[in-house]
Write a structure and sequence with these properties.
By secondary structure, the chain is α+β, with helices and mostly antiparallel strands. The protein has 9 helices and 4 strands; from the N terminus they run βαβαββααααααα. One of its GO terms (molecular function) is transferase activity.
Length: 236
């Protein structure tokens, strides 16, 4: 059994997509990031960066005590290795999947996240910042579009954790001020993954939480005003 600490954000969807693809038993523990659940001591014990998602695996491969994992990329690698699914074992194929997984966690996710922040949540509309991150998101869409030319999935013929890491960050393409029709191979790939039964089930898992406002005014203070001192990590 996997305990999944989750909220229906792109990084949260990555993990439900994996779990639905592989059929692992799991239960969701909602972490309402606008209400400050991510700062609760019991959550910080498994996710010291006070970010979701995080998991606790109660049946690790070594047969020992439960294993906790934080950071969505690390969770995907852990679960892929646990199940032997969605991550090739052959050297070069595995290298390619991990390259594109790290491309997402180091590039597409952070840049699209800043796009969301300055376009939707920042108290001041700063044209330079908005243009900067809209353009960088556009550049990254272009990188992915070129990669997908002549390939069904990011690493080739087989669906992998590279695909299900990137897909949720393309779902909000309209709020990122992008047009998928400008990227035909990306659009084809996106529509393919959107239609997968496991993707449909994963997004349905988030629906019960979508009725709650993800970012209230108080939530903005929690999400965007953190310092070491305010999160108990230092300061005076």
């Amino acid at each position: 059994m996997i305990d999944l600490y989750y909220w229906p954000t792109p990084n949260g969807h990555k993990i439900t997509m994996f779990l639905e693809e592989t059929g692992l038993d799991y239960r969701i523990h909602p972490v309402d990031i606008s209400a400050g659940d991510q700062f609760k001591p019991e959550f910080l014990a498994i996710s010291p960066n006070n970010r979701m998602p995080a998991i606790v695996d109660h049946a690790p491969a070594d047969g020992g005590a439960p294993v906790s994992v934080f950071e969505s990329g690390a969770i995907l690698l852990y679960l892929a290795e646990k199940t032997g699914r969605l991550l090739p074992t052959e050297l070069r194929a595995r290298k390619t999947v991990t390259e594109w997984l790290f491309w997402q966690v180091g590039g597409l996710g952070p840049m699209a996240g800043q796009n969301h922040h300055f376009g939707l949540y920042a108290p001041e509309k700063l044209p330079y910042a908005i243009t900067r991150y809209v353009n960088e998101t556009n550049r990254l869409y272009g990188v992915l579009d070129r990669r997908l030319k002549g390939r069904r999935y990011i690493a080739g013929d087989d669906y992998s954790i590279a695909d299900l890491a990137s897909y949720p960050w393309v779902v909000p393409w309209k709020r990122q001020q992008q047009n998928l029709d400008d990227f035909p191979d990306l659009r084809r790939w996106f529509d393919d993954i959107r239609a997968r039964p496991a993707t449909v089930r994963a997004y349905e898992k988030g629906e019960p939480y979508m009725s709650r406002p993800t970012v209230t005014e108080e939530g903005k203070k929690l999400l965007f005003g953190q310092t070491a001192a305010s999160t108990g990590g230092g300061g005076s």
